């Protein structure tokens, strides 16, 4: 051949063996040693990665697997429960429930009060009461009885749900007026005959009338606090009981009312030497009620106590002009010798 004879092949020298480094011992990890990885062959020609890199990856994979399988999570379960982690106490729940019940009850009570609360008396009741008071002004036994019946009618017409302290007080005052009239009669009978049993009977009836007035006023004071009519009723009650300090306590807030003047005048007239002081009070009350036979009769008694028979006789005549059936005025005028010219 033109290129010459074939040259003998010279074999390549074998590559030197690469020593495999031993893995470093891990004293801190209790895990079992990982299985040895295969050594790369010389043909691969690639160096083996360091053992520490493989071990780190294996540990990371194991940690992820443990977390996924629900192994221990450090510090989470060991945390102590806080205030809002505990269930509310039973007493607190009961208290909240009770408060809600009370709130609902209060709301229901307010609604019921607005629907069922006391109302003003009807016009018919007010008119009936006015007639009763007009009868009471006449002051005869028959007119007082009529006034008492009509005052009760006024309360009945108004109904139990009506707020009508005026009618209650008026009825109480009429009961006390009854007591005054009965006491007048008892005194006149006793003056003629101290042993007459009728005097004691009349006095007993008078006490019963005063007690009836108190029985009317006492419950009314609880539902009509501050009513001037109820205060005047109590003042007249204590006047009839001859307790001036209690009477004055109830008159303190209604002293400008003309009816208060009448009560004070009647109280002074009950005293042995009170007629002179009673007259100005009674005359002031008369200005507000000029057609009151009752006031004219009491003024006549005051003049008679002061030995002023002429003035007493004039007042008796005026009493009978306003109330022709006034029995006590008739008897007293006859006693004074003025029966013939009373008209």
Fraction of helical residues: 55-70%
Element order: H for helix, E for strand: HHHHHHHHHHHHH
State the helix count.
Answer: 13
* Beta-strand residue percentage: under 5%
- Oligomeric composition of the shown chains: single chain
Please tell me about this protein's structure.
The chain is mostly helical and 343 residues long. 64% of the residues lie in helices and 0% in strands. The chain has 13 helices and no strands. The protein has helices spanning 51-68, 90-116, 123-138, 141-158, 165-192, 197-223, 228-240, 244-251, 258-270, 275-288, 293-305, 309-322, 327-335. Helix 11 (293-305) runs antiparallel to helix 12 (309-322) and helix 12 packs antiparallel against helix 13. The longest helix is centred in the middle third of the chain and has 28 residues, at 165-192. It starts with 50 loop residues before the first helix and ends in an 8-residue tail after the last helix. Mean pLDDT is 80; it is low at 1-8, 23-45, 67-74 and 112-116.
How would you summarize the topology of this molecule?
Elements: H1 51-68, H2 90-116, H3 123-138, H4 141-158, H5 165-192, H6 197-223, H7 228-240, H8 244-251, H9 258-270, H10 275-288, H11 293-305, H12 309-322, H13 327-335
List keywords for this structure.
single chain, 343 residues, mainly alpha, 13 helices, elongated
Summarize the structure.
The chain has helices at 51-68, 90-116, 123-138, 141-158, 165-192, 197-223, 228-240, 244-251, 258-270, 275-288, 293-305, 309-322, 327-335. With 343 residues, it is mostly helical.
């Amino acid at each position: 051949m033109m290129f010459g004879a074939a040259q003998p092949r010279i074999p390549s020298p074998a590559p030197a063996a690469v020593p495999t480094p031993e893995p470093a011992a891990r004293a801190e990890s209790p895990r079992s040693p990982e299985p040895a990885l295969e050594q790369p062959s010389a043909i691969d020609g690639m160096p083996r990665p360091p053992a520490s890199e493989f071990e780190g990856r294996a540990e990371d994979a194991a940690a992820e697997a443990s977390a996924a399988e629900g192994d221990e999570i450090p510090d989470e379960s060991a945390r102590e429960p806080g205030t809002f982690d505990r269930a509310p106490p039973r007493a607190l729940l009961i208290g909240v429930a009770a408060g809600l019940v009370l709130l609902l009850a209060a709301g229901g009570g307010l609604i019921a009060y607005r629907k069922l609360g006391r109302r003003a008396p009807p016009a018919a009741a007010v008119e009936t009461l006015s007639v009763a008071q007009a009868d009471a002004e006449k002051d005869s036994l028959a007119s007082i009885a009529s006034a008492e019946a009509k005052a009760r009618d006024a309360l009945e017409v108004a109904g139990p749900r009506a707020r009508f302290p005026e009618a209650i007080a008026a009825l109480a005052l009429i009961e006390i007026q009854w007591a005054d009239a009965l006491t007048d009669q008892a005194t006149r009978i006793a003056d003629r005959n101290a042993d007459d049993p009728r005097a004691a009977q009349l006095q007993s009836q008078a006490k019963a009338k005063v007690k009836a007035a108190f029985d009317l006023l006492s419950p009314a004071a609880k539902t009509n606090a501050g009513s001037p009519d109820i205060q005047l009723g109590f003042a007249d009650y204590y006047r009839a009981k001859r307790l001036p300090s209690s009477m004055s306590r109830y008159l303190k807030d209604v002293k400008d009312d003309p009816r208060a003047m009448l009560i004070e005048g009647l109280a002074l007239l009950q005293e042995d030497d009170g007629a002179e002081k009673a007259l100005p009070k009674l005359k002031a009350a008369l200005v507000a009620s000029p057609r009151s036979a009752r006031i004219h009769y009491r003024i006549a008694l005051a003049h008679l106590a002061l030995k002023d028979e002429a003035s007493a006789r004039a007042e008796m005549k005026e009493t009978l002009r306003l109330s022709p059936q006034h029995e006590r005025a008739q008897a007293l005028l006859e006693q004074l010798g003025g029966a013939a010219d009373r008209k």
